[in-house]
């Protein structure tokens, strides 16, 4: 979450000095996401987006932040999960019949530009280019031990897409985006692992996102679907992590201040 706080702090410094010459908008909202990964889980989400646009300009700068965490935890399929046996005397060993549970949490930050941002009574397209950073973590626990292991994936790269605005009493916005991760970092840590082990994935599959939004006056709703391809990692000091795919469907309700 440090990079999210830093991006927000930098943006506030810039926007405060340029406020008189710019059009500045703040949107914030809450929502929920259904994540289909190694388990199926639902999360509660917090969203905020700040945008800045010079008067008479069709180019808009924006920064969007999101944080999410579990509403409930899910059971882990023991046949598909291999944990590291403790190599110390103080850790409680897991029995073969102990239930395992998973919890998901994560965050994302996006900084970029949108072009062709204009007021029009006709539908119009606009391109999007941004720097995108996403992290998602999966924590494993039992009824006795609340913290056994955690896998954390961080992806940083370039996001590009195109959108269309359909004006009307309720404005409709549709976007399609492709995310090219430049850096993928996978960290494994926990009660049985000891020090965190970080690995950089060599795979670099593209990721995809589609959005559709509706807005009337200052109130809006956003529905998005994301396909996130997580890379694999091998570390002789811990364990191998297979590549996996995260499919998430989100809905958010927004208010413009």
Name the strands of the widest sheet in spatial order.
1-2-3-5-6-7-8-10-11-12
- Helix/strand/pairing category: mainly beta
CATH class: Mainly Beta
Q: Which outline best applies?
A: elongated
Relative helix content:
under 10%
CATH topology: Lipocalin
Q: Major β-sheet, in short? A: 10 strands, antiparallel, barrel
Radius of gyration: 21 Å
**What is the CATH H-level superfamily?**
OPCA outer membrane adhesin/invasin
Number of structural units classed as domains = 1
Total number of beta strands? 12
Secondary structure: elements and pairs:
Layout: H1 2-18, E1 22-36, E2 40-54, E3 60-70, E4 74-75, E5 101-114, E6 124-141, E7 149-166, E8 171-190, E9 194-200, E10 207-216, E11 219-230, E12 244-256
Antiparallel strand pairs: 1-2, 1-12, 2-3, 3-5, 4-5, 5-6, 6-7, 7-8, 8-9, 8-10, 10-11, 11-12
What features would you describe in this structure?
This protein is mainly beta and 257 residues long. The chain has one domain: Lipocalin. It has one helix at residues 2-18; strands at 22-36, 40-54, 60-70, 74-75, 101-114, 124-141, 149-166, 171-190, 194-200, 207-216, 219-230, 244-256. β8 and β9 form a beta hairpin. The protein starts with a helix and ends with a strand.
């Amino acid at each position: 979450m440090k990079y999210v706080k830093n991006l927000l702090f930098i943006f506030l410094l810039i926007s405060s000095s340029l406020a008189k010459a710019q059009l500045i908008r703040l949107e914030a909202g809450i929502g929920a996401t259904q994540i289909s990964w190694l388990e199926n889980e639902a999360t509660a989400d917090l969203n905020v987006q700040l945008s800045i646009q010079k008067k008479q300009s069709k180019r808009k700068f924006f920064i969007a932040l999101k944080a999410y965490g579990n509403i409930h935890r899910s059971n882990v399929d023991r046949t598909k999960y291999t944990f590291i046996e403790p190599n110390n005397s103080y850790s409680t060993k897991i029995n073969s019949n102990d239930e395992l549970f998973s919890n998901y949490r994560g965050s994302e930050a996006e900084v970029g530009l949108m072009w062709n941002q204009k007021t029009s009574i006709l539908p119009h397209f606009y391109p999007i280019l941004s720097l995108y950073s996403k992290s998602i973590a999966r924590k494993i626990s039992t009824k006795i031990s609340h913290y056994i292991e955690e896998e954390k994936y961080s992806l940083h790269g370039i996001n590009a897409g195109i959108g269309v605005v359909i004006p009307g009493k309720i404005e409709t916005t549709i976007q399609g985006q492709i995310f090219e991760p430049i850096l993928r970092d996978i960290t494994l840590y926990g009660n049985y692992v000891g020090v965190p082990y970080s690995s950089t994935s060599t795979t670099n599959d593209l990721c995809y996102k589609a959005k559709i939004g509706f807005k009337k006056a200052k109130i809006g709703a956003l529905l998005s679907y994301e396909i996130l391809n997580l890379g694999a990692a091998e570390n002789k000091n811990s364990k191998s992590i297979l590549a996996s795919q995260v499919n998430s469907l989100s809905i958010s309700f927004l208010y413009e201040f």
